[in-house]
Amino acid sequence: MVSSTTRVWFITGASAGLGLALTRSVLARGDYVIATARSLRSFDELRQDPKIDETRLKFLVLDVTSPMEEIKHVVEEALGIWGHVDVLVNNAGTLTYGASEELGAEGVMKDMKTNFVGPMNVTNAVLPYMRSRRDGTIVFVGSRSAYRTQMIVRKFGLCIICSLLTPSVLL
């Protein structure tokens, strides 16, 4: 049972890098984590860590580029674990390197689907539940690579989402 002083975190891209570090940190402070990644196998390192209390950690498969109905299904599954989500962390992301003519529009659109559309869809799937509770925090993870022209386009999209949400999200 989740107490009123602990928080339930839903973290995308939780199997590596910043997402993995954040998952460890949140668990260390005593909160609960629903860790998501494209594959359960990618959580093997975390599962084998003897310092991890798996009673406060659940793993779900989520590809943020999936259709909205699949994302909603994963969010509903997550809500069924501890009843709510207090903090959504949109961390999943990619960066494809290459010359513009090599990547083409398809390469850029693939990254946009992960870095812009994905976080927007996950947020839109979680937000109704946060609104109903009049409580919740949504975090969008950017990148210091944003100075790169391709990344500017991708991550600026997150700024647009945030500015659209800010006036309308009164929890």
From TrEMBL:
Keywords: Oxidoreductase. One of its GO terms (molecular function) is oxidoreductase activity. Belongs to the short-chain dehydrogenases/reductases (SDR) family. PANTHER family: SHORT CHAIN DEHYDROGENASE, SHORT-CHAIN DEHYDROGENASE_REDUCTASE FAMILY PROTEIN. This is NAD(P)-binding protein.
